[in-house]
Write a structure and sequence with these properties.
The chain is of the alpha+beta class. It has 14 helices and 16 strands. The termini are far apart.
Amino acid sequence: LSEPRIKAPRGTFDVLGQDVGARRAIEERARLILESAGYERIETPCFEATELFSRTVGEATDIVRKEMYTLKDGSGRSLTLRPEGTAPVCRAYVEHGMHKRPQPVKMWYLSSFFRYERAQKGRFRQFWQVGAEALGSEDPALDAESILLLHRLLTDIGARDLRLRLSSLGSPAARAAYRQHLIEHLKGREGELSEDVRDRIELNPLRAFDSEHPRTVAVMKEAPLLLHHLDAEDLDHFEAVKALLDAAEVAYEIDHTLVRGLDYYTRTVFELTSDALGAQSGVGGGGRYDGLVEQLGGPPTPGIGWAAGIERILLIGSPLAAAPAALDLYVCIGEGNDDGTAFGGGPAGFGGAVRRRAFELLWQARTAGLVAEMELAGRSLSGQLKQANRRGARFAAIVGERGTALRDMQDGGEDELSSATVVHELLRRLRNLA
Ligand code: HAM
């Protein structure tokens, strides 16, 4: 009986083949767009103190209640695999005294995140996000810039059926007052609500807007709306953000029920969705978090940002993957060399003189800046030439006992050369071709 084969854990995946190129294309596009707008790359640790997330993302959120990968390390500290990137970036902002730098400080990341969610299309337990955070300014132009950068990234990558949803959550005080209104509304109609919503009226009343339970939906149609309870200043801010988006001619929908699954948001919130995704329609989202830095022990500092899921971008976009570099040279082992075994050098060894010379040639070619590979699978000479063709090699070098033949893979012409002159000759020919 053999042991069951070990597989990648549920909700995780390996990145292979074409996916590597497509992901690289997204990263390259993100780098171009974000760094042109003044965002600097930041890397933060894969795990953080658990309380960083429980305090900021919020004790009542799904993420903190059920989705965090939390472990105790050898000294009994509670650590959590990062479920999101905003709290870590704000932690780093405080830890490195970035408020002393010219503001705003703009940072971007592309990293993997971890949530214990039910795995399905577009939803994984380890997933990748590209994100951008800008701290130290409450100017509505920064909100508009942030939203437009996400929109630009997704449209550049060819995302289909995009919709931008926009709302404002106002200040914590306005939100608290509104929350009370909403709780009263829900309590007044408690009998009509789904059990799930009823159990969480006090804990998370906003979540009721997400319910698909028909009678709950009917109750929520008549619920008070947050946008109607904002302070004058927050309304002004929101109007300014909308005017800037209008000026940029990017369409959006005001979504009164836009509740993001994280507690730190204030004022502007937004989400880009694509109907092409089905149930998991959120491609990317974000908003302002004007109290987050202060909550983490820093000075009062406004901030805004977003994150978008790479796997979801891949589902709706068509990132142009760069073709793998074609080979300049494929180094072959000539037939009848060494002792005739696949690897040469006698039944016990790999060390035939011809193979050594072939390796030397491979390394000289790479040192000269060429894209080169060498035969490593013991193929016959015709098998090696086929492999050279498959890899798109422009030239093949067939290393033999007495010398090396340089073969033009396009016209099949071959010239005998002394080993020492092969790379020199190759460079000359490639230059002439260029
Ligand atoms: P979020 O909405 O939780 O926001 O996640 C952002 C994006 O990450 C989602 O729109 C989705 O594309 C992707 N995502 C989330 N969970 C999964 C999953 N289990 N599998 C695959 N993709 C997933 C945040 O994380 C905030 N930190 C965004 C932000 C940045 N707000 C301000 N700054």
